[in-house]
Design goal:
By secondary structure, the protein is α/β, with parallel strands linked by helices. It is built from eight helices and seven strands; from the N terminus they run E-H-E-H-E-H-E-H-E-H-E-H-H-H-E. Helix 1 (13-23) links the parallel strand 1 (4-7) and strand 2 (28-33). The longest helix has 29 residues, at 102-130.
Length: 252
């Protein structure tokens, strides 16, 4: 019987790469995202990789009622979720705190913190009931070190880091693993979203850096999720070789 993984924010970047990685290895996949057309395309792609099942859930993690309604009405065969990857997240804007866009702040807080909490609150009880499971939270090196103009984004990812450690303690007696993965520079649409579609500014973020790829992080997620039952990676920081932490990198 195939194991089941649920991935939020699966329509691009790390989420999509993770879905493909697990589909190719025979997992049934629950993919979630805001963009239905992308979900539909990804579902077709995943089904082409083998004898697996795919369930697409179209919702925005920021909308508490939608998360509760949709995840609360999962078909019976999809309730045995072995792995939850809380991947949905974003950065918006890059301004000093005194000039920050409050709408950007709300968007990051609602997605990176509250969205993660809404989904976890819906899925964790299913894992508790089954006496096993693995929650993987995608944080960031920005949650380990603050940097200029990072302010609210750093704060939201620091919250993910803290929540991961708290979840690990709370769910320990239920045989549920919790892993915090904190990537450094990963060249996806992350910076394009942060700069509202400004391609040139987004490209400059990675200029002179041999950045990580979405597949690199998907490989790490797969590694953590497929270790023996008695082994749990609690916290994993991954950076390009040219990056030491959130604020220090060497550009060629």
């Amino acid at each position: 019987m195939n194991r089941t993984i649920m991935i939020t924010g699966a329509t691009a970047g790390l989420g999509k790469a993770t879905a493909v990685r697990f589909a190719k290895n025979g997992y049934n996949i629950i993919i979630t995202g805001r963009r239905k057309e992308r979900l539909d395309e990804l579902e077709k792609e995943l089904l082409s990789y083998g004898e697996i099942k795919v369930l697409s859930l179209n919702f925005d993690v920021r909308k508490r009622e939608d998360v509760a309604s949709i995840t609360g009405n999962l078909p019976e065969e999809w309730k045995a979720i072995d792995i939850l990857v809380n991947n949905a997240g974003l950065a918006a804007g890059l301004d000093h705190i005194d000039a920050g866009n409050i709408d950007d702040w709300e968007r990051m807080i609602d997605t990176n913190i509250k969205g993660l909490l809404y989904v976890t609150r819906a899925i964790a009880p299913l894992m508790v009931a089954s006496g096993k499971g693995h929650i993987i939270n995608i944080a960031s090196v920005a949650g380990k070190d603050a940097y200029e103009n990072g302010n609210v984004y750093c704060a939201t990812k620091s919250a993910v880091d803290s929540l991961s450690r708290s979840m690990r303690i709370d769910l320990l007696k239920n045989n549920i693993k919790v892993t915090n993965i904190a990537p450094g520079m990963v060249e996806t649409e992350f910076s394009l979203v942060r700069f509202n579609g400004d391609n040139e500014r987004a490209r400059n973020v990675y200029k002179g850096i041999d950045a990580l790829t979405a597949d690199d992080i998907a490989d790490a997620i797969y590694y953590c999720a497929t270790l023996p039952a008695h082994v749990c990676i609690n916290d994993l920081v991954i950076t390009p070789t040219q990056q030491a932490n959130a604020g220090i990198s060497y550009r060629r």
